[in-house]
């Protein structure tokens, strides 16, 4: 009878820890995106006419990107909450950077030049910028939604939560200070 109870307990444990398909897809997508970014960066570096960076800088950047993205993908695959929070933080920071970039592009189109841009043209430019932001944020938005929706399947200890909160606070503070310095 004990062996039957142990078998049922094991099956329950396996059922609870089973990895949802969406989490698998996000981990695989993260690995594929990392490899694509590294290959595209290598191609751009090799085909550039003037190469302002040294080879060691390229290798160092590639190792850092690979380590961070690989660690996050492995953490997502193993259903660790720190990885979920890390991926969400990276997506949010990239979304903010992308939105600010589009905002500067729209502003440059409206305010550049010697003549005043007609109001109808301003609306077209602003609408074009809004569409770019929405389309550019669609996939990251879906990933964020899935990570929030499946938050129940990620493991976390109080120490990990404290450490992640502290790291997130420092990253956000550093990005805010660098934005203030840039402006």
Strand proportion: under 5%
What is the total tally of β strands?
Answer: 0
Largest β sheet strand count, sense and barrel closure: none
What helical percentage do the residues reach? Answer: over 70%
Number of continuous helical runs: 7
Structural class: mainly alpha
The shape, in one word, is: globular
What is the H-and-E element order? HHHHHHH
Using only C-alpha atoms, the radius of gyration works out to 22 Å
Spatial gap, N to C terminus = 71 Å
Average pLDDT, all residues: 82
Give unreliable regions as ranges.
1-16
Structure notes:
The chain has 183 residues and is an all-alpha fold. It contains 7 helices and no strands. Helix 4 runs antiparallel to helix 5. It starts with a helix and ends with a helix.
Question: Key features?
Answer:
mainly alpha; disordered N terminus; 183 residues; 7 helices
Quick synopsis:
The protein has 183 residues and is mainly α. The protein is built from seven helices and no strands.
Please describe the topology of this protein.
Blueprint: H1 2-17, H2 21-47, H3 55-77, H4 81-111, H5 119-136, H6 138-149, H7 158-182
Helix pairs in contact: 2-3, 3-4, 4-5, 4-6, 4-7
